[in-house]
């Protein structure tokens, strides 16, 4: 069955009120659309954990910088709705930007610490936009749980922090990155890649796997683990944005992976003009 498409805040609030009166448990999957199997896996997991799943499809302008790809970000609402239907989503919030940020809008959410460094340093204002739109969605839908992919790992930590700090009462669930058969992390921006660049992009996941193998063999110092990723990026001719080993929760840089510790190794690189990110747990 096709999901109900909600275009305004008012009709979404009315739908949510009706759902709450029925006592059913709601899972929310916020997205920017151009859905792939990673998004669909979140929706299926939401169905497993809740009675009803809702999704949002909204290319959020406040998380794009002035020279980023807002205008050309891939969009396919008809295809997205079909994927939502296949995953059992009951309602999709698909507003225009003016519905989310009407004239006179002036309130933003800034998560100060985990938004620093990594993508936060390279994309000023990005996480302010992410935190604002996610807060608005959580307040509008009032779900019992919301699901996000671990591919956007810093984003996930930002969302966990805002939910905790603002006492929103929503269980934030992070789900493992969904990958293509060859290891490439699924991303809507993969659509930008030429066939040649698509093969070169595998350097991100290969580099992370090489670092994991090195750590398992006993090398736990950050410079050596980071160098393993950089070798793969350089061999594929990719331009590094960052490669960093950080604490899995606070995202503070680590000099090494301590025994028994599970850290996170994150990478961002440009494949041609397309910026891709990936990450893996390491250690433990």
From TrEMBL:
It catalyses: (R)-pantoate + beta-alanine + ATP = (R)-pantothenate + AMP + diphosphate + H(+). One of its GO terms (cellular component) is cytosol. Keywords: ATP-binding, Cytoplasm, Ligase, Nucleotide-binding, Pantothenate biosynthesis. The keyword Nucleotide-binding applies. It comes from the Bacteria. Beta-alanine binds at residue 63. The keyword Transmembrane helix does not apply. Its EC number is 6.3.2.1. Pathway: Cofactor biosynthesis; (R)-pantothenate biosynthesis; (R)-pantothenate from (R)-pantoate and beta-alanine: step 1/1. ATP binds at residues 32-39, 149-152, 178, 186-189. Belongs to the pantothenate synthetase family. Homodimer. Catalyzes the condensation of pantoate with beta-alanine in an ATP-dependent reaction via a pantoyl-adenylate intermediate. This is Pantothenate synthetase.
